[in-house]
Amino acid sequence: MTMTLQATAKPVVAAKRGQRSRAASFGLHAVLVVASVIAVFPVFWVLVTSFKPDERAIEPSPQLVNNSSLDNYVDVVSGAEGSFGYWFANSVLIALLTTVIAVFLSATTGYAVSRFRFPGSRPLLVSFLVVQMFPFAVLIVPLFNVLLALGLQGTSIGLVLVYCTTAVPFCTYMLKGYFDTIPTDIDESGRVDGLSPFGVFWRLVLPLARPGLAVTAFYAFLTAWGEVAFASAFLSAEDTSKTLAVGLQVFVQQNRVEWGHLAAASILVAIPAVIVFYLVQRFLVAGLAAGAVKG
Amino acid sequence: MAEVAYDSASRIYTGNPPVRAVDQLNLDVADGEFLVLVGPSGSGKSTALRMLAGLEDVDEGAIKIGGKDVTNVPPKGRDIAMVFQSYALYPHMTVAENMGFALKLRGTPKQEIKDKVAEAAKMLDLTKYLDRKPKALSGGQRQRVAMGRAIVREPSVFLMDEPLSNLDAKLRVETRANIAALQQRLGTTTIYVTHDQVEAMTMGHRVAVLKDGLLQQCASPRELYDRPANAFVAGFIGSPAMNLKTVPITAEGAQLDGLTVPLSRASLDKVGGLTEVTFGVRPESLKLAGADEQGMELTVELVEELGADAYVYGSVRIGGTPERFIVRVDGRTPPAFGQTVKVALRDAGEIHLFHPESGARLEA
Q1: Is A192–B75 a contact, with Cβ atoms under 8 angstroms apart?
Q2: How many structural domains is chain B composed of?
Q3: Looking at residue A251, what DSSP letter applies?
Q4: Beta-strand (E) ranges in B34-170?
Q5: How far is B76 from chain A (nearest CA, A)?
Q6: DSSP code, position A120
Q7: Does B76 sit within 8 Å of A193, measured CB to CB?
Q8: Which one of B229, B253, B274 terminates a domain?
Q9: Which of A141, A196, B87, B204 is exposed most, by the fewest CB atoms within 10 A?
Q10: Apex CA B135: angle with CA B134 and CA B137, to 5°?
């Protein structure tokens, strides 16, 4: 009794956890501010450039505002420069299809690998890892041959399949790790309560795995959204069948770069990615952490 | 309501050699009975329960619920409700949704679900928490939700897999009584798994003791305590454990150090030509003897004082080797550590004799 009284009466001398001195605080924030500026500045400058006419984009003494207007955006969106509408539609279609297919396949696969013991479950996981080791450049020709054999060359669905080959193995690994953190008691409880095995997956495990699903969806979306090499190799050369990332190259020509239009288009490309990120960000930390610990 | 029957049911895990987790289990549970499966870890008690639930395959034999063979019926077709050790509540549903989930899957009308959940919640004192998620509940409340989820379904059999082991000691004793009372009231056949023999003795109408996948004995708690079928059951049931020692036997009786325990003619006949038996005596059947009485010399090594009683742990030399004995003595006058006391059988003290090799009970 007296012990505790004394202990509480004594003034606390040592700094509490989470408290730091003024100097340390200043130093820390200074570093953070500098790092933030370095990270944000390029994006900011692209935004600034996107409002300027092409010829004002690069100047000896750069200015924030110089004949700025929305002309670049109008040009890009109206299709006066490039076929932005087509590119955008293609990208959205391909990215969404990739996301839906990849998440569905990897969720079912991940659940099977996490819960069921079947011959070849380990080799399956190992093969997923091995597949990830091939560089993109090596895969382009064989994948093209595969698409050719399937009669899918130049089609969006062909490209979606190609993206799934990268997205599914990674997402399966992530989701397997996430499913492993959900106790199997819950599955069993659901089965006793009257669910079929698929019902357990659909009504109990998937809702509980939402953070993991969000992260994998995000990953699959980005895989398809910003990808250039496969998209330019596998889609037909027609301007209207390109994706955004490929289409942007239109603004970069041999002798002339349309900086203003390129910047405006880039900003437009970034917006959907930002929206997706915003939607899933609250799940990201939990999902990444859980996926990272196991699997 | 239904009776349950295990008919030579076995669960065999493949491996080298294959493990018979549950071996030829034969067990009949009457309608409305509270049967406890008890045993040390790895005894197959949980596996036996999971076989009944349909969560574990039955490799040999059959399982019947209400006279119907359910050996190959999936869990949802067995009309059972299970309470898991971890409770296995659905974290993304509220308490009310958790409790009503099985009914919802069955297509019960919403109002009926609501009424039944409300009724069960009232019974379990959960009405205030119906809108909460499981993570906002204490351990005891979660346990009650798990119970409620089982009750709401009105199944023909309740299965409980160590439902109290995650509670603290005081709550466990309280909940133990509540579950027993609830089962009495509902009259639903219940199979209850525990490793705690006190739980088994206090709750079960009958207790089935398992070891290494084999059923050792299935009897009422009293029978189990008074007439254990073998040395394992004798040592497992009762706390502190029965003193079980291998002692030489002569025409006069069992020869303990300085103490001869006379045996009845019937017992001697049963012992037959054996020169040694496993001799069992519970701590409460022993007493401290006066200086002039016959008795074993026991050197006190530890005294556990429990208030009314005290347990004296000490060693006795039997055939030259020190053997540990536990004796229950009056709590107010326990011997001191290091003291040597004389121990003898109480006047009405019971003894148990078991075969030294097989461990089977030799009828006394």
Answers
A1: yes
A2: 2
A3: G
A4: 34-38, 60-65, 68-69, 80-83, 157-161
A5: 4
A6: T
A7: yes
A8: B229
A9: A141
A10: 70
Within 8 A of B87 by CB-CB distance, chain A residues are: 185
Nearest CA in chain B to A210: B92
Considering only residues 193 to 232 of chain A, which have any Cβ-Cβ distance to chain B shorter than 8 Å? Answer: 193-196, 199, 204, 207-208
* pTM of the model as a whole: 0.80
Q: What is the pLDDT of residues A226-281, one digit of tens each?
A: 888 888 888 877 778 888 888 888 888 777 788 888 888 889 888 888 888 888 77
* Shortest alpha-carbon distance between residue B3 and chain A (Å): 18
Band (pLDDT 50/70/90 cuts) for residue A15 is low
Q: Which of A47, A36, A37, A32 is nearest to A274 (CA)?
A: A47
Tell me whether residue B137 is in a domain: yes
Are A189 and B82 a contacting pair at CB < 8 A? yes
Is B304 part of any domain? yes
Out of 1.10.8.60, 2.40.30.10, 1.10.3720.10, 3.40.190.10, the CATH code matching A81-293 is 1.10.3720.10
Q: Residue B61 and residue B346: Cα distance in Å, rounded? A: 47
The reply to whether B245 and B207 lie within a common domain is: no
B173 in A contact zone (CB under 8 Å): no
How do residues A142-169 score in pLDDT, each as one tens digit?
A: 999 999 999 988 888 999 999 998 899 9
Q: What share of chain B is helix, strand, coil (3-state, %, to 5)?
A: 30, 35, 35
Domain end, chosen from B167, B198, B229, is at B229
CB contact under 8 A, A193 and B91: no
Q: Measuring CA to CA, how many Å separate B197 from each of A226, B68, B120, B159, B225?
A: 63, 31, 29, 18, 11
**ipTM of predicted complex:** 0.84
Token readout for B128 is 């205030």
- Does B187 lie in the same domain as B72? yes
Find the residue in A nearest to B89 (Cα).
A186
| Domain, as residue range, for B296 | 240-362
Question: How many angstroms separate the CA of residue A196 from the nearest CA in chain B?
Answer: 8
Contact list in A for residue B89 (CB cut-off 8 A) is: 189
Task: Nearest chain A residue to B88 by CA: give it.
Answer: A186
Query: What percent of chain B stands above pLDDT 90?
Result: 68
